Predict the structure.
Amino acid sequence: MSKNSLSSRDVFTSRLGVIAAAAGSAVGLGNIWKFPYITGVYGGAAFLFVYLGFIALIGLPIMLSEFTIGRKSKSNAFGAFKKLAPGSPWKFVGMLGVAAAFMILSFYGVVAGWSIDYIIKSVTDSFASKSPDELDSMFTQFIEQPGLPIVYQLSFMLMTMAIVIIGVKDGIEKYAKILMPILILIILVLDVRAITLDGAKEGLNFLFHPDFSKLTGEGVLSALGHAFFSLSLGMGTLITYGSYIGNQNNLAKTALQVTVADTLIAILAGVAIFPAVFAFGIEPSSGPGLVFITLPNVFQQMPGGFFFSILFFLLLTVAALTSSISILEVVVAYFREELKIKRKLATILATAMIAIVGVFCSLSMGLLKENTLFGLNFFDLLDWISANMLLPLGGLFISLFIGWYWGREKIEEELAKGAGVVSWLLSVFIFLVKFIAPGAIAIVFLHGLGVFNF
Ligand code: VAL
């Protein structure tokens, strides 16, 4: 199949390939870096429970909606709405996704760059006999530098670019299939070590015993935003991947499997981190450095820690890669199909633009730290706007599109491909996308922004 031709599109070749690629997209820094850090910031278990509720009631149905839109339209995120709702403004929903993908990848590349640095720090045994405080300043000093973090960020973007240039079928599928299970194994080993540390119980309590009085409107909005971020929703990714899924595939089953896997991995990451946070006296609300500061302490205290830490940061980088390629693919598919730019050039252009914005994200950790808007540096601002605004807004419109614009008949027709449709499950799905998802997103969104209070 020619990869540059616009008429013959790439497809995933096997069922396993579809799941591996979609799960590869979903599972990434969102699960291992961002989930523990924002759970810590917003107070622990109560945040986790609200997050889980959003995953089940909003995330899962919207994932299925995105797959459906993608497969039916066989188009990029913007083109999909143009095709399914010609001449209407729905296409701007696709645009919102492309914009979110662009923003997210800018700062995503920076964090992936940190992970690359931590592979090297692991290989050179730099964590050895350092106290929790020393490990903390090691991280801060590193991210505040103007040079090295950018070198790693750019290297990561180049790797992402290379894989996307190879193409969907040969590139993404092959890498995703092999490496994810190994990452899960390492996290399980870390879990065992973490929960057997002295003082681990406090960490598990923090993660699993909710105190809902601690929740704020902003915390709830962040839980919603993170449900989208972690499942790769609202950023055009799963519409684009959906467009590469063949008709023999059972979309509902795939969506369920990806959602469950993504959520379990986030929880497993939380179990590896919070017991250690408390055991080593680290502040749970320390922010974006939480994982990078906490885990080196754990590695120090486990047999084979040297080896495990190399493997962990290596695989974290790979998990970030299988996600970043899916984000870049959104922008590339848009450039190819809408702007008629060939894959290779489209990929180089998109990567260059995103990487440049990413350089500023990296600099905003140190050199440009004082330049803030609403109290947020450039990195946090892009994260906040994309996760807490663009993704939920995209999700809101996607659910309205499927639930109200498309309607039961068309949904049933698309879902019936590759699967038997169970009537009551279809009704539940339609009820969720028609009422629950848009209603809940609207309330959480406006409340989180402080438009009203209750
Ligand atoms: N969903 C991924 C993650 O959680 C990316 C695509 C944002 O890391």
